[in-house]
Give the backbone structure.
Amino acid sequence: MTVHRGQVLKAAAELLSRKATASMDDIARAAGISRATLHRHFAGREALVFALAELAVRQIEDGLDAARIEEGDPAQALRRLVAQATPVAGFLAFLYGENQLYEPGTPDPGWARIEERVGALIRRGQERGAFRRDLSAHWLTDALHALVVASGWSVQDGRMAPREAPRMVAEVLLGGVLERRTA
Amino acid sequence: MTVHRGQVLKAAAELLSRKATASMDDIARAAGISRATLHRHFAGREALVFALAELAVRQIEDGLDAARIEEGDPAQALRRLVAQATPVAGFLAFLYGENQLYEPGTPDPGWARIEERVGALIRRGQERGAFRRDLSAHWLTDALHALVVASGWSVQDGRMAPREAPRMVAEVLLGGVLERRTA
DNA sequence: CTGTCGTGAGACATATGTGTCTCATATGAA
DNA sequence: TTCATATGAGACACATATGTCTCACGACAG
């Protein structure tokens, strides 16, 4: 019946990304454990948030590695990235929200690495003529994150099936909403 | 030097949508007033949040009216909607975040009205063959909100000019990221 | 069975935020 | 000027969350 640190952190991420004011007791209940046990595994709220950020960065960077976003056709690389990101949308949402707190110039180093890698993919696609150049790479990066987070919430609410999420995000981001005659 | 209620609420919306844990003192400072004055205008935090939600709903519904989203070409209506929404992105972000707290079945009535009107526009576009049918109207509604919120944060951080925001959001949402030969 | 380990429940002091109050000051009208 | 009004600064009691503790229970290995 031992508590698994990763599972607790995943529950905490999904709760905190939606309700940042959740108490330690709320987090414990969301993870299915008591507050005492939660404190045994994490020295305090600060330590928990730190561990959460660390795990989130690792999960997402692992996803970037697995998607091999530096290789091949940019559009396909973006689809692979989205497919890797949607299962860990809760962690991404937490990180994304957490980095809205800092001053615009001092982001978390791990988050900065992630943004840089995703931004590089976008720029690579723009240079190859695959992605539009009239939209800034920075904005497209933000848009990608926002859509993944939104899809994660839709899944949490049962409005979207988890297996649909990658396609929903990728189709909107790559193709847009407009119907087209020629695919 | 009298405090203007609307300006205080706008500052509160932009702060709270990013940092839900902000204290009344933080909110007061963000609005450029003292905590005492903040309490003179709003009975308490609960009352402030209520007033904020009320104003946010009104601002956005006014925008929907001004954009006349029920009329004309759906794609153009969506562009008008985005143009009206981006200036009040802070309020939309607050409402959007606030409604992630409730249980999936009991949203704020005002927010439900907004979602319904936007959803109706999406469905109208799908029925007319203007918008894609392979993506659910609900998801497209969520995607729209998420992109507007993200653009608002970009503006707050100085990464995007306010006047660019409508086009950035509308272009990604309608056209997607992919470069195309034929416009 | 016996001992150990991890847990849940709850008590407790402390820290932080909230809501209310008083008082001094500044602005603006008569 | 004189007065009214609104504000800022700060004190205060109170509520809530946090962090630490003790104790009892149950699972599991020996």
